[in-house]
Amino acid sequence: MPTINVQLFEGRTVEQKRAFVKAVTEATVATLGSSAESVDIIIQDVKREDWATGGKLWSDAS
């Protein structure tokens, strides 16, 4: 039972998330040979102020 955790900047639509989880599920089934019903995907929306790369908050990026 693969469980896939994904962190994304907030702001994606439900339609985008729906398409994303469908594509990831299909890729997981094709790659790992699991059933679609066994694939769990957890999406966490993250504010840009709560994510940093290289010591700089994404909310500070220009």
Regions with little confidence, pLDDT below 50 for 5+ residues = none
CATH class: Alpha Beta
Strand order of the largest sheet: 1-2
Number of strands: 4
Roughly what percent helix? 25-40%
Beta content:
25-35%
If helices are DSSP runs of H or I spanning 4 or more residues, what is the number of helices?
1
- Measured distance between first and last alpha carbons: 41 Å
Whole-number mean pLDDT = 96
Can you tell me the number of structural domains?
1
Radius of gyration: 15 Å
Q: Which structural class do the helices and strands define?
A: alpha+beta
Main pleated-sheet profile: 2 strands, parallel
Query: What is the 3D form?
Result: elongated
Within CATH, the superfamily carries the name: Macrophage Migration Inhibitory Factor
Reported CATH architecture: 2-Layer Sandwich
Series of secondary-structure elements, N-terminal to C-terminal: EHEEE
CATH topology: Macrophage Migration Inhibitory Factor
